Amino acid sequence: MIQPLVIAIDGPAAAGKGTLARRLAAAFNLAYLDTGSLYRATGVATLRAGGNPALEADAVKSAQTLDIASFSPSDLRTEQAGVAASQVAFIPGVRAALLDFQRNFAKQPPHGKSGAVLDGRDIGTVVCPDAAAKLFVTASLEARVQRRVKELRDKGETYIEARVRADMEARDARDKDRSVAPLVPAHDAWILDTTALSADEAFAQAEAYIISKVKR
Ligand code: DC
């Protein structure tokens, strides 16, 4: 049986991973999984059940019984969902409960696709260490803050820039410093710094890298 083509995309919040991963999945005709949405859904489910996302028993129960189909994208893209996600992501039992779903997606991509693009924080290091191509997408804190501010402005949401920056720094620290699956580039990942790149430029560079990796 032919092994599915797996592309791992990791990096910090607002570095441009999601947009890039979606475009790459479309360009190579692969399935796409935003693994952050699993952590977001776990956080939101815990809040909906009246639980505390920072509490192991509450968060693990939500992860083990997660029905991802019951969440709409707008439920998951709020700042509150992002904060709850980074709290549940800290808990080893939550990560273990979500691991099988992610690995199965990569092993047996849906809709008969011949492979999958997964984006997150630990795809190249933990979820799919054998991925054919691994990208670590990053950008300076300032560039990521400005992108998030623009996103909020475009959605008509009120925001305080200093607050967005403080939240981003806190989330970076939680992602990098946790003991299980911290945010680090895999040793064999290709680093793509998008600070000074447009979305089109980032896509062109990522596409060229992947073609160079999968050419046999
Ligand atoms: O990419 P995002 O903002 O949707 O991710 C939300 C949170 O989930 C973020 O704080 C990190 C966590 N996460 C993770 O720990 N591992 C992943 N593979 C994906 C997301």
Account of the 3D structure:
Helix 2 (36-48) crosses helix 5. This protein has helices at residues 17-27, 36-48, 56-64, 73-76, 79-88, 92-107, 123-127, 141-154, 161-177, 199-214, and strands spanning 5-10, 31-34, 115-120, 133-138, 190-193. With 216 residues, it is of the alpha/beta class. The protein has a single domain, classed as Rossmann fold. The model has no long low-confidence stretch (mean pLDDT 93). The chain has a 5-stranded parallel β-sheet, sandwiched between helices. The protein is 53% helix and 12% strand. Bound molecules: 2'-deoxycytidine-5'-monophosphate.
Outline of the structure:
With 216 residues, the chain is of the alpha/beta class. Helices cover 53% and strands 12% of the residues. The protein is globular.
Task: Offer a few descriptive terms.
10 helices; Rossmann fold; alpha/beta; binds 2'-deoxycytidine-5'-monophosphate; 5 strands; 216 residues
Can you give the mean pLDDT?
93
Give the CATH superfamily. P-loop containing nucleotide triphosphate hydrolases
Please tell me the CATH architecture by its name.
3-Layer(aba) Sandwich
Bound molecules: 2'-deoxycytidine-5'-monophosphate
Q: Main β-sheet, in a few words?
A: 5 strands, parallel
Number of domains: 1
**Shape estimate:** globular
Radius of gyration: 17 Å
The first-to-last residue Cα distance is: 17 Å
Number of strands: 5
Strand content: 5-15%
Fraction of helical residues: 40-55%
Q: How many helix segments?
A: 10
Which stretches are low in confidence, meaning pLDDT under 50 for 5 or more residues running?
Answer: none
CATH topology: Rossmann fold
Order of helices and strands: EHEHHHHHEHEHHEH
Structural class by sheet pairing and helices:
alpha/beta
CATH class placement:
Alpha Beta
